[in-house]
Amino acid sequence: MLKLLSGQHNEFTIGVGYQGHFGRHHMTDEQLETGIKLNKWLTDKYDLSENYIVGHRDLVY
């Protein structure tokens, strides 16, 4: 599930969302493995360092 992040970051970010309430539950193994593959694909496709992967709370709005 890719979507542009809200706020002023729309023009230069890609958001990846996961289904679940992770304050209460852990990600499933399938979610975690798929997320790793997706992040790897995105960093390869856009020639990015893994340092560019941040949590949505890491962005300043």
Q: What series of H and E elements makes up the topology?
A: EEH
Tally of separate domains: 1
Q: How large, in whole angstroms, is the Cα Rg?
A: 12 Å
Strand content: 5-15%
Distance between the termini: 22 Å
Helix share bin: 25-40%
Pfam families: Amidase_2
Domain N-acetylmuramoyl-L-alanine amidase: 8-58
Organism: Salibacterium salarium
Protein name: Autolysin
Protein model, in words:
The protein has 61 residues and is mainly α. The chain has one domain (2-58). Helices cover 28% and strands 7% of the residues. It is built from 1 helix and 2 strands, in the order ββα. It has one helix spanning 29-45; strands at 2-3, 15-16. A two-stranded antiparallel sheet has the order 1-2. The model is unreliable at 1-5 (pLDDT under 50). InterPro entries: Amidase/PGRP_sf, Amidase_domain. Pfam families: Amidase_2. GO terms for molecular function: N-acetylmuramoyl-L-alanine amidase activity. Residues 8-58 form the N-acetylmuramoyl-L-alanine amidase domain.
Secondary structure elements and their pairing?
Elements lengths: L1 E2 L11 E2 L12 H17 L16
Antiparallel strand pairs: 1-2
